Amino acid sequence: MRYFLIFLAALAAFQYRAHAFADETLIKAKCTVCHSSDRIEAKKRSRGEWKRIVKRMKKYGALLSGDEEKLVVEYLARVYGR
Ligand code: HEC
Q1: Ligand 1 site-directed mutation target among 27, 39, 45, most atoms within 8 Å of CB
Q2: pTM
């Protein structure tokens, strides 16, 4: 039982990292077409600000599905949030 719990904890940690990695890859792929990631990392912004910026980027032509847009906003708010 104890090993099973350790296994579960390791699995959860791995999935969490894999998830963050996927979000980061998504941003690298979709958000550095027109400018470098310096632009993104330059400033910490609130969730609302990130939401507005990502909407604006979509208007400029960033290719994001609705689900991807949500993931990107979540990730940016978590990592570059304030
Ligand atoms: C089609 C081209 C394009 C794509 C793709 C794009 N951007 Fe931009 N981005 C721009 C342009 C042009 C500006 C400068 C004008 C502006 O700030 O509105 C900019 C500016 C920015 C800024 C600075 C805004 C500010 O107010 O200081 C951030 C942050 C940003 N982009 C984030 C992103 C993110 C996150 C993505 C991916 C979802 C993305 N961009 C994808 C064109 C793009």
Answers
A1: 39
A2: 0.87
